[in-house]
Hints:
By secondary structure, this protein is α/β, with parallel strands linked by helices. An 8-stranded mixed β-sheet has the order 12-11-10-13-14-15-16-17, sandwiched between helices. Strands 1-2-3-4-6-9 form a 6-stranded mixed β-sheet, sandwiched between helices. The chain has 3 domains: 3-267, Alpha-Beta Complex (2-enoyl-CoA Hydratase, Chain A, domain 1), CATH 3.90.226.10; 299-481, NAD(P)-binding Rossmann-like Domain (Rossmann fold); 486-704, N-(1-d-carboxylethyl)-l-norvaline Dehydrogenase, domain 2 (Orthogonal Bundle). It contains 30 helices and 19 strands. The protein is globular.
Amino acid sequence: MSPAAQAPEVQTRREGAVLVVSINNPPVNALGQAVRAGLLAAVEQAEGDAAVRALLIVGEGKAFIAGADIREFGKPPVPPSLPEVCNRLESCGKLVVAAIHGAALGGGLEVALSAHYRLALPAASLGLPEVNLGLLPGAGGTQRAPRLMGVKAAAELMLSGKHLSAKAAAAAGLVDRLVEGTDPVAAGLAYANELLAQGAQPRRTRDLKIADQAAALAELDALALETAKKTRGLFSPGKIVECVRAAVELPFDEGIAKERALFVECLNSPQRQGLVHAFFAERETAKIPEAQAAAPRHFAKIAIIGGGTMGAGITVAALDAGLTVTMIERDAESIARGQKNVEKVYDGLIAKGRMTAEGKAAILARYTPSTRYDDIADVDLVIEAVFEDLEVKKAVFKELDRVCKPGAVLATNTSYLDIDAIAAVTSRPQDVIGLHFFSPANIMKLLEIVVPAKVAPDVVTTAFALAKKMKKVPVRAGVCDGFIGNRILAVYKQAADYLMEDGASPYEIDEAVRGFGFAMGPFQVTDLAGGDIGWATRKRRAATRDPQARYVEVADRVCERGWFGQKTGRGFYLYPQGARVGQPDPEVLAIVDAERAKKGITPRQFTADEIMRRYMAAMVNEGAKVVQEGIALRPLDVDVTFLSGYGFPRWRGGPMKWADMTGLDKVLADIRAFEKEDPLFWKPAPLLEQLVAEGRNFDSLNKAA
């Protein structure tokens, strides 16, 4: 037995004629350098031992191999490369069997595809999710998967980044056999010995032929068009389709060479940087100071106050997380409407065939509607989701203070309001926290967890535990008007308003923002959310607005006409017959012209690039202020807020990552140029100035945190 094969990460032992190769690189057996070298050494060992007739590859712990070692990301490659390992496994003269019992993802699945035979246990999960990181499978996955499961199915697996269950993988042809049980070694040995008894020979995936090439290419052509439409501006999906096309058209070795070349292109793409940053940033947001100080409180029973759109969405999110929910509304009519709002979500799933009536009934067995606060005396956690008015919310919290048991967590779902002021009306401010869900709350991933001054650390950790249970992406925020997301939104929306008044139409601005990678522009978003919401906020802030600050009244003029967006059939856009996509409205352009004339503004032209430079400079500048004031712990918290809650294009990594990749010096130079026009609005954030002066970027603050 060669010493190299006995590195701690890869252990070998002989069981009869089978060499068992165990990968042990916790927590998920990632394909680090030691694992890759160990696998190569195991092949050499097997080929050098006449008593060995087959290799069995298994993973220790919960996974087979869950992909590349993320600790190696961004570092120079260290041999052996994964393509080298996969090719060597495939060319082995002894039978190679992979027994998959948990995650076989990315490079882990590519290792399995290089084996001659594959079996899966029920808990196995197989996928090639590299697209999520702006990459493509780079160790033969794009060439081997189409040969095993068909061209279209393989391309769709890679483009979606989704995982297949063991059963689905077997049906697709990715695995040869499904075996009950939980012991991959026992199952793998039984299968390997059965193959040997049958006289089976190495069966190399590379030698499989793709049937009906013409049909496969026609499917790929259709998929390429669909992908270009769906993945607006994304780099790697198009390259995945190219690789799969190479699997059809080229000999295997040429296909592999093509895959490698395109993999390197993806690797060097700024999109990859943005997507990798997004991936890690979402895992970092849960690292909060309170986690060191306190464990979460127990919660199983929760109450939701309010059955409107938000209350119903939060209720569904809680029910889906397995919690028991009581909804409180003020009267019988309102609670009936609240229940209807909840049921509508599940009825929609039944209509789509994604749920049965029995499944709905089982979920709703954990739901109780009520009009009596006394019915929630025993709940562990309450989320208030009533109208966005401070006095209304204070009245609710006085009532919660009266009825709720000691130690119950009292949360408010406010988007803007002062949570310290809400907490102050209770006798237990240590139990009060902000949970800002985004609409629709059962779908949107972001949960801003807003931490008021007097809250206990274990209430903060409870909120993060709830987010995890609800499968939300949590971001810790401090108290200020609008917290992280809405505070920054208010500023870049202002920049968009100034652009509109200075000469760009709302439709040009929206188009530029969509061209940048957002699904919608700011005026489309206003119409979707309802123009009356922003109008109410502007009226609320009117008394405290700096009289020197520039104020654009176009949106007020639109709202004064009762045009609140999609729900009223017109806003900045027209929505004839309830259309979801709006049409430009000449009357809105006339309002804009009138406002310009009133202020003596001569409109000027803006290119899409000029629009985005202002839009993004405003976003980044306010983001820097939010970090500097401690409202966000780190720049990455701002990034995750915008990626998960505001439709920021994921491949750009978030506004602060975008600024890093653009160059903070360039962003600051733009702000200083704009400052000459409006020194009050375009005042550079001191943090941004400091970082540029020191030659640092926002990411340096992520690492320091």
